[in-house]
Structures are given as structure tokens and as C-alpha cells.
């Protein structure tokens, strides 16, 4: 279930995209580029790209904001967790559906709830609308490049 917002962490990347379904691949591409510049950023890629795609699609599909209002993305890697945010100027709130088993609808927040360490929705400070955030843990069992290098050095 969504959590309430108590504080705001510093943001390290922000971009605003047009509120259209065909902006979703660009949102995912920006996240991939952001993570490619972070140490071990690939450990977050699969889940974070999936969840960002769902949150972005929701902002486009469900927001009642005027179509010319942009959707804002924010990414920050803080203390070993990736935080993603998707801001829209609409008034509704993300509302997880009770069941998603036999229905394509309701899949987005089901996935967010299952795969994010935590998530929530907050009003935008000093502005209209809200943002939905998700905190993503690194994937377990990912090869640590420093360990791989050390093993290679020993073998040689
Ligand atoms: N950004 C948003 N703004 C307003 N309502 C939202 C937003 N995101 C999600 N919702 C609400 O939460 C519901 C569940 O979202 P989701 O699980 O992604 O299912 P779906 O998008 O298939 O309806 C949506 O149907 C919508 O009512
Ligand atoms: Mg959805």
C-alpha cells in the first residue's frame, strides 16, 4: 500500500516529457542513461525500467491535467537505493486494485507494490498535482565487478 510522504531527498536528475504514451520509451531510455553513469547502476535497471514505465503510463493515462502539462521524472541514487519519481499535474491518486490475476488492468501498481521496496504518493510542494515515488533495491546476486577483477588477477 502507498506510504505517505514525510520528507524529500535531494534529486540528482530531473526531466520533463510530453504527456503522451509515446514518451514512455524515452522515459525508460533516460533512466537507463542515468544508471549507466552510476557505479553498479545496472543492478537497478530491470525493475526500475519496468516500474518507471508503469508509473509514467499511469501519469499519461489517468491524470486529468490539461494535455499540455508535462510529466516530470526524477531519479536519485541514495544510500544504495534508487528512488524514481513521476510527477503529474492531475488530481487523482494511484489506487491499487484488489486483484490483477485475470485482468490486464491493475497490473501497474500491483507490480510497483510487489517489486519496489517502498512506494507512495505525495502532493507536489508549492504546485498542483502529485508525484508517485518508488524506492528500488539493487538486484541480488549481480556480479560485483571488483570481485571479478580480483579473481582474474589471481588466475593470471
Ligand atoms: N498518476 C495517476 N493519477 C491518477 N490516478 C492514478 C494514477 N496512477 C494510477 N491511478 C489510479 O490507480 C488505478 C490503478 O493503476 P494501475 O494499477 O496502473 O492499473 P491501470 O493503469 O491498468 O488502471 C488506475 O486505474 C487509476 O484509477
Ligand atoms: Mg497502469
UniProtKB/TrEMBL annotation:
Keyword ATP-binding annotated: yes
Histidine kinase/HSP90-like ATPase domain: residues covered: 18-118
Gene3D superfamilies per UniProt: Histidine kinase-like ATPase, C-terminal domain
Keyword ATP-binding among record annotations: yes
A molecular-function term among this protein's GO annotations: ATP binding
Keywords assigned: ATP-binding, Kinase, Nucleotide-binding, Serine/threonine-protein kinase, Transferase
Alphabetized CDD domains for the sequence: HATPase_RsbW-like
Signal peptide: none
Species classification: Bacteria, Bacillati, Actinomycetota, Actinomycetes, Kitasatosporales
InterPro entries named in the record: Anti-sigma-factor_SerPK, HATPase_C_sf, HATPase_dom
One Pfam family from the record: HATPase_c_2
Name of protein: ATP-binding protein
SUPFAM superfamilies: ATPase domain of HSP90 chaperone/DNA topoisomerase II/histidine kinase
Amino acid at each position: 500500500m502507498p506510504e505517505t510522504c514525510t520528507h524529500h531527498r535531494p534529486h540528482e536528475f530531473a526531466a520533463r516529457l510530453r504527456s503522451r504514451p509515446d514518451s514512455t520509451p524515452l522515459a525508460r531510455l533516460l533512466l537507463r542513461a542515468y544508471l549507466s553513469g552510476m557505479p553498479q547502476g545496472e543492478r537497478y535497471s530491470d525493475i526500475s525500467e519496468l516500474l518507471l514505465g508503469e508509473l509514467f503510463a499511469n501519469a499519461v493515462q489517468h491524470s486529468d491535467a490539461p494535455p499540455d502539462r508535462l510529466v516530470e521524472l526524477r531519479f536519485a541514487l541514495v544510500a544504495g537505493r534508487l528512488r524514481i519519481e513521476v510527477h503529474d499535474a492531475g488530481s487523482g491518486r494511484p489506487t491499487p486494485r484488489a486483484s490483477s490475476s485475470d485482468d490486464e488492468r491493475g497490473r501497474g501498481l500491483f507490480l510497483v507494490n510487489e517489486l519496489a521496496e517502498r512506494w507512495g504518493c505525495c502532493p507536489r510542494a508549492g504546485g498542483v498535482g502529485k508525484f508517485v515515488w518508488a524506492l528500488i533495491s539493487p538486484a541480488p546476486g549481480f556480479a560485483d565487478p571488483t570481485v571479478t577483477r580480483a579473481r582474474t588477477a589471481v588466475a593470471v
